[in-house]
Amino acid sequence: MPVYYAPDLSKASYLSFIKILCTWKGSLWKSVYMEAVVWLALYIILSLVYRIGLSDESKKIFVKVVRHCHDHEGWIPVTFMLGAFVTIVLQRWWSVVSNIGFIDNLALIITNYTRGSDDRTIMFKRNMIRYMCLVQAMVYRAISPKVKRKYPTLDSLVQAGYLEPNEVCMISENNFYQSVSWALALARLARDENIIKSDQALQDIFQVLHKTLILNYKL
Asked: Which residue ranges run through the membrane (predicted)?
């Protein structure tokens, strides 16, 4: 989940930037503190061994090894390797972000192609979007431990409003396609009842439903 810092920056002061740096939740410190502690511990141990545990002759050998490593450190293209690593990581995370099936685009398409304010039309809109939210929730349950803890069972999805009680018996834990099938069937029924006004509009809705499903599966 995102961490919002806007309230901390609402007042312009010299302490605002320091306050942001010292924030623990969602901070860089929280991400790297364990590695930093291990590195500092190893450095302190190595320093103590050199100063206390080694004889004068051993210290000379140690210094020679250090100088040899320092003289030849340019042989390893650290900058190139680090740049390649950062590029791979960035591409991976950008791919994840690009493949998130944001429900907003789907909701806009469905809302604009199913015009009307009567109860029947509203039911079609809500249920099609609800079914696609359901497939997102089920995919995220499969890949995210945090989402799995929040929605451990299908009954928890019922309590959250993604599923109706009578639908639980018609879907299984890993059957992601079922809710998409329901959404497609609703779109087809809405076209039959002339709530969706044209075959082209129905085709566009089918395409965006399919695209949302494919994006979620690429995660």
From this structure: 36-54, 75-94
